[in-house]
Amino acid sequence: QVQLQESGGASVQSGGSLRLSCAASGDTYSYSMAWFRQAPGREREGVAALDTNGSTTYAASVKGRFTISQDNAKNTLYLHMNNLKPEDTAMYYCAADPGADNDPLTRDYSYWGQGTQVTVSS
Description:
Largest sheet: 7 strands, mixed
Radius of gyration: 13 Å
Number of strands: 11
Strand content: over 45%
Oligomer: single chain
């Protein structure tokens, strides 16, 4: 059983930076990992993914500003967010799955965290 716990969300001003963390319990070494977000009144969207082969995928809206990384020794996934914009405001969720089929930003993930809130003010 895998459990995921996000942290690092905060309120920041436009142009600021944050680093989100997702601590995983259980063996996620060979899992696909991803960050999703959901703003009020909007559908959940995939933001960044790290596949089992080490490849990364980013949503067009965050490419060049966000970086996904993983520390296997700490079993922790990160999302480094730079040049934050008000439209990045959302609840951010960490997700994990043992599979690697289909688009990593739209596939079904088996495990989800509770989320951490990011608010960006202009």
